[in-house]
Amino acid sequence: MREIVSCIDYVGVNDRTTQKFEALWPLPQGVSYNSYIVRGSKCTAMIDAVEISQCEHLLKNMNGAQPDYLVINHMEPDHSGAIPVLRKYFPQMTIVGNIKTLDMVKNYYGIEDNVLKIADGEELDLGGLTLRFYLTPMIHWPETMMTYVPERKLLFTGDAFGCFGALNGAVTDSDIDISPYIPEMYRYYSNIVGKYGTFVQKAINKLNCIEANYLCPTHGPVWHENLRYISSIYNRLSKYEAEPGVVIVYGSMYGNTEDMAELIADQLVQEGVRNIRIHNASYTDLSYILSDIFKYNGLIIGAPTYSNGLYPPVEAVLNAIKVRELKNRYVGAFGSFTWAPQSLKRIKTILQEMSLCTEDIPTAETKCGVSDTAKVQCISLAKEIAAKVLS
Ligand SMILES: Cc1cc2nc3c(=O)[nH]c(=O)nc-3n(C[C@H](O)[C@H](O)[C@H](O)COP(=O)(O)O)c2cc1C
Ligand SMILES: [Fe+2]
Ligand SMILES: [Fe+2]
Asked: Superkingdom of the source (predicted)?
């Protein structure tokens, strides 16, 4: 149990053994599932729970606290998994959520009794401390909400403002070097929340009226000292705003498409682009590719033609980008083939379906090895993208 502010403690847990979050996203630095205890003079509330395998750690961290309420800001099982166990330990504890939360509590865990349905803006008096609930749907599930404690100017934000990376000793950002958590925030946002930028923006605007000195997410550090910096990152990411730089994602079996990627990168540097990230889609985990794509404003995709279609690892990246409704990027495309070109056409079609760019997409294409014509196209593609991303 760790005090955040007077009468509000951290009781969350670190998970340093799960290899992939949602069985998809690598966790080289682990992840924390954050849970908090708020002690009023009349009642005690627990805010969010943890993943099922971490129940024992949670109970130990609670150090004998007897919650009267469990507030559920988000029902994804990385937080709600412990609910049935908590219900057995604390049968008197009322589960608090909105109409969508309680529907999920019933359908996941068969719990319908001793629940309290709250509406947007409603408050719960704990005695000297108040919990005020703000519905912030689709960050990144329909039931997501945030809980504010006005007396402490502290906001429990659910997955919003969260990041991968277990907590290394400290809970609040003031007590640690936050630099390892920043790339993990880009990765968490782009992997998990990325599709819902519009809803994040809605929530940010809705919560503009409250003053918060502490943001307490369900993953990663509590933001206090760096709250403004973190909010600005979140605000930018959810508006799909990006820094000058180019991500080149390509696939290649025998090196010809790869040669084009190298040529393009070489020219980008000559044009003055300094942030260039090259990812071979067969080797870099999608998680890191997406993170870079959310960070930089240029995106160039290349692939060989494969069985009259697009080389599968590149197609997977394009699908992931499409799902996330990426906006505001300068895009280019390149492709290769031996007898019937398909890849470039497919990449262009998918990019155009995303309405990423209004202008024509610059392209380069080669038959077999990189031809002189293809070299010229690669150079001109790089020049065009460089001019746009640096403008
Ligand atoms: C399994 C396989 C399927 C392919 N299918 C096609 C195809 O349908 N049409 C085509 O024009 N080329 C096809 N190719 C040829 C590649 O697109 C061509 O060799 C390309 O230059 C490979 O690029 P890379 O050297 O970057 O791997 C295929 C190659 C392989 C190995
Ligand atoms: Fe979640
Ligand atoms: Fe989560």
From this structure: Bacteria
Residue linked to tokens 């979140």: 234
DSSP 8-state assignment for residue 192: I
- Closest atom of ligand 1 to 341 CA is 11
Handedness of CA 57, 63, 64, 65 (dihedral sign): negative
CA 173-178-179 angle, 5° bins: 170
Centre of ligand 1 from the C-alpha of residue 291, in Å: 29
> Domain 243-385, CATH 3.40.50.1360 — does that match?
no
CA dist., res. 391 & res. 386, Å (int)? 8
Phi, psi (rounded to 5 degrees) for 195: -65, -25
The domain spans of the chain are 2-238, 243-385
Q: Which residue from 254, 305, 371 has its CB within 8 A of the most atoms of ligand 1, so it is best to mutate?
A: 305
Q: Per residue of the chain (391 residues), what is the pLDDT tens digit?
A: 899 999 999 999 999 999 999 999 999 999 999 999 999 999 999 999 999 999 999 999 999 999 999 999 999 999 999 999 999 999 999 999 999 999 999 999 999 999 999 999 999 999 999 999 999 999 999 999 999 999 999 999 999 999 999 999 999 999 999 999 999 999 999 999 999 999 999 999 999 999 999 999 999 999 999 999 999 999 999 999 999 999 999 999 999 999 999 999 999 999 999 999 999 999 999 999 999 999 999 999 999 999 999 999 999 999 999 999 999 999 999 999 999 999 999 999 999 888 676 568 999 999 999 999 999 999 999 999 999 999 9
Domain 2-238 CATH class label: alpha beta
Taking the CA of residue 253 as reference, the ligand 1 atom at the shortest distance is 27
